[in-house]
Design a protein that fits this description.
The complex is a heterodimer of chains A (276) and B (770). Chain A is mostly helical and 276 residues long. In chain A, 82% of the residues lie in helices and 0% in strands. The longest helix of chain A has 33 residues, at 99-131. In chain B, β40 and β41 form a beta hairpin. The chains are: A mainly alpha (276), B alpha/beta (770).
């Protein structure tokens, strides 16, 4: 696999992403969201300099939790399937490239586009906070930025896996929306019900939650923005006591696994699967 | 007294800066008289010291009392003793013996301006009423929290004043069985209980900061406690209360700030007496996980003009049971709730709609704390939405504030220190710049490495096997190529060679397997085992990418990136093929598209797209061109132009493999034809023999004088043609290369041919039928 070819295809993807109306809308919406998050969070701290992680910040983190995966999944899903459907994938693969270069090129290109869009949003939000003279939680801001980008890459990886599996862009988009609902809603509701029905222990509950990248993102962001992860109750307290300072590494590893594993599976399937 | 003081200064001065002689200080203390002052000069003095008469022990800067990890440092057994200005260190670490920096066993002691470090207990007052502990800095031993001692402990010591001390890294500040104590202006941090009251009546806590402890203040079994102007911040241990009230009676809390705690104020059976009311007013509870947490039986607490700001859960009722008997409105004034959604039409600062704390998910969390893990998740939002939508599962409000305030109540509190915003601004600006750079550098990278030499615009093709690839060796060698889709063989056992300057046509009906064969040759499909496809010495199955560097491919269905401009598209493929971008202009000129270079692909006609595809195929000047249905989208003129371009390429010694349905294309371009039927090669012939080999015929429609139609049919039948009348014309079936002969027959037979045309209707789109 040639890194140079990967980068050439990556550049093509960036170019396509920047011209994609959906991507432009997503990037603009995220910037507005980040700005709103910053301003509304600050609104609560103007009371005599008190600062903290409140309902408003939490609700906006929740919005990021909903928005960023949707953004990454829906950008990734049509990338391979759409090209396959239009026939451009076959033409591209008839050139001196191999399939892994195409797959990883798409990951690099879309990944850079997503990370840049998120960086822009967070940058604007950060400047708006700094302009008002607030600088508390710089580390939390950086962790939030980094983890959001990592989450976006994880969801991009999942989206590309779906895209490698199906032949039509519309089917891929439909599948990732179902997947998005599953990750954002159904898995948590299922785990809540399961924990009550089967009387799950704290360790079981925490470890099961680690399987959901969105839960991992939420916990890692809370850990950095809130005074302590114990705001999430006994299961999180167990995690803090059991893993201590390794917890951050565990969260990072869990999200990284969500990048690596779907991409590895996508590579396996895309390399072996018939073109049409 | 002056004489003795001077004597002590003189004696101790001799040991300043070093360890004083063992027992000297104790001897001098013992020799002092009641009311005298003993000054301790700089240097390390051995403990433990025991003070048995009223006196003042005053340390000069650098004076240290070191217990050497044994027992207490100073033990005061007489009333009216003052210890001031000393550094006290190195007590024993026995919790059983309660080793302390200073133990006071008599009333009216004054302990002030001392520094304690590496002590198990700091200051321990046992039955030392009316004592003062002031401006001391007390740090505990570096031990696990359960093994530490208390920074300050009062035991049966009423009437004391504890003021402006800084206690950190200890266990608790304990005040037990001591009434009328005032605790004022202290900072207690990083301990277990910032304050622990038991059985203390009529005490006052004011202007203290209790922060980063497990619990800010745990107040138990006491009466008439006043809390005023204190701050309880970030107390987040396993229980994590700002203050915890257990069986307290008559608490009055005003102007306190509770922020960032796990629970701001925790109520357990407080007040415990049925005739006692408790009042909480003008406090700020902000950014706590839970602002107020109640055991269900708790009653007779009254809250007014408090500010509940951005707490994750404003009020929690822990466990089951009916929660009532507390009020959140007094004299028409309620509290400020940051999540209040009401309005104030009259402008009196009081909301017109009552505030109600009502959340299904909060109720679930209160009963099943482990569900807190799903806090801030979309699942939480879904549950809340369901509760709002479905009345049957809507929870009973935990509380109702009938007069919520529209604005928070401001109270006096120390200004929070702010970190400099410049670092955040720099980080944020860096993020924006990095994002832009990332897109610019990665997205618009230069092509300077596209080729090693600008003098050689086209890519050089590496020959895998120099012996095999000679000037006469085949550029493409296909052996035993088979491909199956399910149970159907799309291509079966195909073999052929193709050399430079040679053009090979694949001929066959739709579904004959031509396109499948080409896709196998390009490595887009995996072919069945046993096949061998070698392009310029590269085995396609093992080195597909290298093989494709030697191929220019024009597909049957032109699939391009439609929103790209023609030259952009070619630049992209030039990078892929590692060709210098100057080659783009050359190939555009070669195919006659120079004037359309800046047009979007979508704006090009079918013929232009076909030529663009050929331009892309020619970018690297490859030795082998593979074209699938090359003129499918072209009109007659464009077809001729395109075929001319390909003939030029063949003359340049390129090998050409193409598929076509059109006999004239085959005849114009091919040297050989492979005839395919249902995946198999059924014949190999020259183009001129194709029609004969396959018995191909075209339909010809001829118009003659109406009176001569029957004669014409007869003449044609006589010459062996398949002819019949078709209205006022004749339909004749002829070989594609024999279209002129029927006309000659008719004219020789004396008939005038008025007009003729190829019968497209009978010929079908392909022009020929077998």
């Amino acid at each position: 696999m040639s890194v140079r070819t990967v980068m050439i295809i990556g550049r093509k993807e960036i170019r396509d992403a920047l011209r994609n109306r959906w991507f432009q809308c997503y990037a603009a919406a995220f910037t507005v969201l980040a700005l709103a998050m910053a301003q509304l969070s600050l609104a609560g701290t103007t009371l005599q300099g008190l600062a903290g992680f409140g309902r408003t910040t939490a609700a906006l983190v929740n919005l990021v939790l909903l928005f960023v995966p949707l953004m990454a999944l829906s950008i990734a899903a049509p990338s391979l399937a759409g090209e396959r459907e239009r026939g451009t994938l076959a033409y591209l693969l008839a050139q001196p490239v191999n399939r892994l270069e195409v797959l990883f090129g798409k990951f690099v290109g879309l990944g850079v586009s997503l990370v840049a869009a998120l960086g822009l949003g967070f940058g604007v939000a950060g400047l708006s906070i700094a302009a008002k003279g607030h600088a508390q939680g710089l580390a939390g801001f950086l962790v939030l930025t980094a983890m959001t980008m990592t989450l976006a890459l994880a969801m991009l990886s999942v989206g590309l896996l779906v895209s490698a599996l199906v032949r039509k862009a519309s089917v891929a988009v439909g599948m990732v929306i179902v997947l998005w609902l599953a990750l954002t809603l159904f898995s948590d509701l299922g785990l809540m019900g399961g924990s009550l029905m089967f009387r799950l222990r704290m360790d079981e509950l925490f470890h099961l939650a680690l399987l959901n990248p969105l839960e991992v993102f939420k916990m890692s962001v809370l850990r950095s923005m809130h005074a302590s992860l114990d705001v999430l109750g006994p299961a999180a307290t167990y995690a803090v006591q059991e893993y201590g300072r390794w917890l951050g590494l565990i969260f990072a590893a869990a999200l990284t696994a969500w990048i690596v594993a779907p991409m590895a599976l996508a590579a396996l399937l895309f390399a072996r699967r018939p073109l049409s | 007294m002056l004489r003795i003081t001077m004597q002590l200064v003189m004696i101790l001065a001799t040991t300043a800066g070093a360890r004083a002689q063992e027992g000297e200080l104790q001897r001098l203390i013992d020799e002092s008289q009641a009311g005298q002052t003993v000054r301790v000069t700089a240097g390390r003095h051995d403990g433990p010291l025991v003070i048995r008469r009223s006196m003042t022990l005053a340390g000069e800067p650098g004076a240290i009392i070191d217990a050497h990890e044994k027992g207490d440092a100073i033990r005061i057994e007489a009333p009216d003793v003052t210890v001031r200005g000393m550094r006290i260190t190195g007590t024993g670490d026995s919790l059983d013996r309660e080793n302390a920096g200073i133990v006071v066993l008599a009333p009216r002691a004054i302990i002030e301006d001392n520094t304690f470090d590496d002590v198990l207990f700091g200051i321990y007052l046992k039955k030392a009423a009316d004592s003062v502990i002031r401006r001391n800095r007390i740090g505990g031993k570096d031990l696990d929290l359960p093994r530490r001692g208390d920074g300050i402990r009062l035991w049966y010591s009423p009437g004391c004043l504890i003021e402006d001390n800084n206690v950190h890294d200890g266990r608790d500040v304990v005040i037990w069985f001591s009434s009328n104590v005032t605790v004022r202006g202290n900072l207690v941090s990083r301990g277990r209980y910032g304050l622990h009251f038991m059985y203390c009546d009529d005490n006052t806590l004011e202007n203290n900061s209790l922060q980063d402890n497990s619990v800010g203040a745990f107040l138990m079994y006491s009466r008439r406690l006043t809390l005023r102007g204190n701050r309880f911040a970030r107390n987040r241990g396993p229980s994590g209360y700002g203050i915890g009230l257990k069986d307290m009676d008559g608490v009055t809390a005003t102007g306190n700030v509770f922020d960032g705690n796990r629970i701001g104020i925790y109520f357990d059976n407080s007040p415990s007496s049925v005739d006692v009311q408790q009042h909480f007013s003008r406090n700020v509870l902000a950014f706590n996980d839970i602002a107020l947490a109640f055991q269900p039986s708790t009653k007779r607490n009254h809250f007014s003009e408090n500010t509940f700001l951005e707490n994750i859960e404003q009020v929690a009722v822990l466990g089951s049971g009916r929660f009532d008997g507390n009020s959140f409105t007094t004299d028409g004034r309620g509290n400020y709730w940051s999540d209040y959604n009401g309005y104030d039409r009259g402008g009196d600062g009081v909301g017109d709609v009552p505030y109600q704390a009502q959340s299904l998910f909060e109720n679930l969390m209160d009963r099943e704390p482990k569900l807190r893990l799903f806090l801030f998740s979309p699942a939480q939002q879904a549950i809340e939405m369901a509760a709002r939508t479905v009345p049957t599962i809507r929870p009973i409000p935990k509380l109702t504030d009938s007069a919520p305030l529209m604005q928070p109540i401001l109270i006096a509190m120390p200004q929070q220190t702010q970190a400099s915003a410049s670092s955040l601004a720099a980080v944020a600006a860096g993020l924006i710049v990095a994002s832009g750079l990332l897109l610019t550098l990665v997205g618009r990278g230069p092509i300077r490495n596209a080729t090693a030499s600008t003098a050689a615009p086209a890519a050089q093709f590496e020959m895998q096997d120099s012996e095999a690839v000679t000037s006469t060796a085949p550029l493409l060698k296909v052996q035993s190529l088979s491909k199956r889709f399910g149970r159907v063989w799309a291509v079966e056992d195909m073999s052929f060679d193709l050399r430079g300057g040679e053009a090979l046509a694949l001929w066959g009906d739709n579904g004959a397997g031509k396109t499948t064969a080409i896709r196998c040759i390009l490595g887009l499909y995996r072919c069945a085992a046993g096949a061998s496809i070698v392009i310029v010495g590269h085995d396609v199955r093992r080195h597909g990418k290298a093989a494709r560097t030697c191929v220019g491919y024009v597909p049957q269905e032109l699939a391009f990136y439609d929103d790209w401009k023609a030259d952009e598209l070619l630049c992209f493929f030039a990078r892929i093929k590692r060709v210098h971008k100057r080659r783009v202009g050359q190939v555009l000129a070669e195919v006659g598209l120079s004037d359309h270079a800046r047009k979007k692909v979508a704006a090009l006609s079918g013929g232009m797209k076909q030529r663009l595809a050929l331009a892309a195929a020619l970018l690297a000047d490859p030795p082998l061109l593979i074209l699938d249905e090359i003129t499918a989208n072209l009109d007659a003129a464009a077809r001729r132009s395109f075929l001319s371009l390909l003939q030029d390429q063949r003359r340049r010694d390129k090998a050409i493999l193409f598929t076509s349905h059109r006999l004239e294309e085959i005849t114009a371009l091919a040297d050989r034809v492979l005839v395919m039927q249902r995946g198999r090669v059924t014949a190999v012939c020259e183009p001129q023999q194709l029609a004969q080999t396959l018995g191909l015929q075209v339909g010809l429609r001829v118009w003659v004088d109406a009176a001569g139609l029957d004669k014409a049919v007869e003449l044609l039948h006589r010459e062996g043609f398949d002819a019949r009348r078709n209205g006022r014309s004749l339909s004749v079936r002829v070989r594609p290369d024999d279209k002129g002969r029927p006309l000659n027959v008719l004219m020789t037979g004396g008939l005038t041919v008025q007009d003729f045309e190829l019968d497209n209707h009978s010929n079908g789109e392909e022009g020929v039928t077998s």
